[in-house]
């Protein structure tokens, strides 16, 4: 095989080299869940499923107690997880493991943790401003990521939905985070825009319509466009500033709704 021949290479252009497998790109994680796994131990997966190199049971905390669940996270020595596995007398369906997006608890932006944060000051999760915590915050709620009227830890944040879409793609298809981000630009727009459209129709969020920064950047949309409309005969011209993103939301909604 090409891989085996490549692993035996020890010299290139007269330079001594050592070829090793990338431990990050050549492994993947999957989830198995079954009520019959309640009494199963992690070692059994390593023994009976050849491609599994690590197994971890998910535990939940209730008060001071840690409760073992019937769900395991398996690490495979393949770029994508196997669809199925088996331990004695128990066939298992393996689903891709999608981790939760990493959000810094200091600046509340995605992609790094508190220990690697470069922000000079800790920001409030509610308003995105420094100098106070969320408990004593009296400012208007404003997300530091998408500028919407919700806290930075909201699951309705467009930035959060984008990050989760990228992680779902990578869990199923492998590759790097950067490759997954490039591959799901259109998919992200399809997932997020219908939700924004609903907000526009209901009038529940004025900020989210005009400040979906990540989506606008990914599709190269200008921030605003001005239009002029006439109410009718004898009426004055009315100038309206319509967010280009909301216009695109309407167009996408009409197009996909017609399919």
UniProtKB/TrEMBL annotation:
SUPFAM superfamilies: Retrovirus zinc finger-like domains. Residues 232-259 have a biased composition (Basic and acidic residues). Transmembrane segments: none annotated. Residues 220-259 are annotated as: Disordered. InterPro entries: Znf_CCHC, Znf_CCHC_sf. Keywords: Metal-binding, Zinc, Zinc-finger. It comes from the Eukaryota. This is Nucleic-acid-binding protein from mobile element jockey. Residues 124-139 form the CCHC-type domain. GO terms for molecular function: nucleic acid binding; zinc ion binding.
């Amino acid at each position: 095989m090409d891989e085996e021949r490549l692993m035996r290479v020890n010299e290139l252009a007269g330079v001594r080299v050592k070829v090793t497998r990338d431990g990050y790109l050549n492994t993947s994680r999957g989830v198995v869940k079954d009520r019959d796994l309640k009494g199963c131990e992690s070692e059994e997966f390593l023994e009976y499923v050849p491609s599994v190199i690590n197994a971890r049971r998910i535990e939940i905390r209730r008060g001071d107690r840690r409760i073992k669940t019937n769900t395991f996270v398996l690490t495979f020595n393949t770029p994508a997880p196997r669809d199925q596995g088996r331990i004695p007398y128990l066939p298992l369906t393996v689903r891709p493991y999608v981790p939760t997006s990493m959000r810094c608890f200091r600046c509340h932006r995605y992609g790094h943790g508190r220990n690697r944060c470069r922000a000079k000051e800790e920001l409030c999760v509610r308003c995105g401003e420094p100098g106070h915590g969320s408990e004593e915050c009296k400012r208007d709620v404003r997300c530091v990521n998408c500028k919407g009227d919700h806290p930075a830890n909201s699951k309705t944040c467009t930035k959060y939905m984008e990050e989760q879409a990228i992680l779902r793609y990578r869990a199923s298809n492998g590759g790097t985070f950067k490759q997954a981000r490039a591959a799901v630009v259109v998919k992200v727009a399809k997932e997020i825009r219908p939700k924004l459209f609903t907000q526009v129709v209901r009038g529940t969020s004025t900020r989210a319509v005009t400040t979906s920064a990540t989506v606008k950047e990914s599709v190269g949309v200008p921030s605003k466009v001005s239009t002029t409309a006439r109410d009718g005969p004898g009426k004055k011209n009315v100038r309206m500033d319509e967010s280009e993103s909301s216009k695109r939301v309407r167009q996408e909604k009409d197009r996909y709704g017609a399919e």
